[in-house]
TrEMBL record:
Annotated protein name in UniProt: Uncharacterized protein
The organism of origin for this protein: Diphasiastrum complanatum (Issler's clubmoss)
Amino acid sequence: MEAELRWHRMQVWACGLCLVLLLAGCCPGSEATFVGVCYGQCVTNLPSSQKVVQLLQAQSIPRVRLFDADSGVLRALAYTNIQVVVGMTNSEMSGVAQSEAVAYAWVSNNVAAYLPATRIIAIAVGSEVITSPLNISSLLVPAMINLNSALVSAGLDGQVKVSTPHAMGVIQNSFPPSAGSFYSSFVPVIQPLLSFLSQTQSFFMVNVYPFYTFQNENPRVSLDYALFQPKTGTVDPNSGLVYFNLFDAQVDAVYYALEALGYSNLSLVITETGWPSMGYASEVNVVNFQNAAAYNGNLIKHILQKNGTPLKPGIGIDTYIFELFNEDQLPGPTSVRNWGLFRPDGTKYYDISFGGQGSISGGTVPSGNPGQIPIVNRTFCITSVGASFTGLQSALDWACGKARVDCSAIQPGQDCYLPDTVASHASYAFNSYYQDSGMDPSSCSFSGLASITSLDPSECGSLSLVNEGFLRVTPNLKGPWRSNLQVVALTVSTKFDRLIVRMFVCQTS
């Protein structure tokens, strides 16, 4: 009974709400173009929902994409005028796809319950479902149809659209853009999906990541081209169109793929894009604060100026930057956990503005850093002063065993085997574990056997500590041994009321 009463109330005010939104110029089809953010919650020390919403308001961020239908966040967004894309998780799709009643209940509990106070504008059904290894793509269109039917029953289909975010992996050819096409194996699902989007006047959602394309196709794709900073354009040999950034080229590849299936009039929404600010040491020239600031800052400028793309100039594309915070609890490489724009306390990792056209000239790194020096915010984990042999051996065994660190490089005959000392091997394993853990300080403890340093051992050739008068020099085995040493850092600390001086040295050619 309560659900039925709620549904009735939704029908009463739905028409009035649409009128309000139209007067505000914010209904689907409006000429305004927005840049929002994705809000993932796999974050240590996650702020309260109220503080998150205050951050969005303080930064003039007009839209947010949620990966689920978190009730606390949806309540906190009430009366803020922030437009919201609510996510349905992949695991929820099965029940919704198989039952109209389940879809009705989902819309009632996760959409209707918060309208009109919270401005929900779309439901994102699953995430990259078609390319998911879970083999659930057959559930996608039925789930979308049932959700839309529930919205129609409530009179909400005019302002709440149903779509699903796709990975660029659905596109078989993206270079040149005019060759854009979907993988034929996906077409049996994509064809009815596009028909649904067209009939409901919804939009095609896609996640566009020039960062990954640059990584996979370098050197064919230049870093400047990926960061909206090209020196020259790239000509599509088929269309003759000139592209000045990789983002536009990827977006047009999607447009061409849609056109090939007869859906050239569908609008696009970019549900994820961005650039990580931290990764492995080997990625330092690509993954750093400066490049993240450049990409996201230039992206915002590009979108808000409503440049469109070479294929569709002047056509705005609503875009969501991935993401609000670093999701440091996610598994995988360090870069996976470092896409955030803000720290949990609300401070920026680098300076970009969502404030509007004409006020953005690309992002900048925090003040106090010379512009010509890449800002990498990187630290490393090495064996500590006074570490015992038995302790290091035990910690090394744990790292290479239970912790599953890849220790193949320190096996006999491999690049990092020499010098064949427990301390050297332990430093390698400790730092590998530390980097894989996203440079979490707690991952460089090893019961007091390890220390954090800002000096990169791989760049120095070797890095050791003067340990209470004993100096161990590690040769750079990739070149001839030379005796030239350079003191590169000196740190002073206290432990048990004893002064400890740490002098780092490295081999130079």
